């Protein structure tokens, strides 16, 4: 299966693609960063690269480190952008009642020690974007207050995504079925996170 993906999964290219996708999907949530991370981890489990050599496949530890680092850098970029956006960002959010309500609830949660919500939001569809922008725009916390939770979220998401691809390939074989099951598991985690985020803070 992954022999046809050799040019992408070999060498440093896969790391660059994963890093760029994870970094940018905080601004473009439609980017399939999670799918790319799972595919790279599945290729690592498959043990085949461009020429079928073991040393050309992605390294699992490197994938986790790169995905987590790119996630944190993207979060911080969105956080700082929201801080500097000021009135313009508020006007953009005001156009959507749903986004405005979400922004306000996230701000209140963070203001009352709701840091774990940052980790939960990392798994929800577009939750990372709303959390990073909302935290930067509505709270009086400094970057160093947001950073530890963003780092925890990035590591948790990277470990989960890479683990799905890697162990899915070992259990089901390095094929499209394993990748599909892993992607479904990622989406299921996202749906569960989105459900929990919609619940009242007291219940959560």
From TrEMBL:
Keyword Membrane carried by entry: yes
Protein name in UniProt: Membrane protein
Family per record: Belongs to the DedA family.
Species the sequence originates in: Streptomyces albidoflavus
PANTHER family: ALKALINE PHOSPHATASE LIKE PROTEIN (PTHR42709), UNDECAPRENYL PHOSPHATE TRANSPORTER A (PTHR42709:SF6)
A GO CC term attached to the entry: plasma membrane
Membrane-crossing residue ranges in chain numbering: 12-28, 60-82, 146-168, 174-197
Subcellular localization(s) per the UniProt record: Cell membrane
Record membrane topology: Multi-pass membrane protein
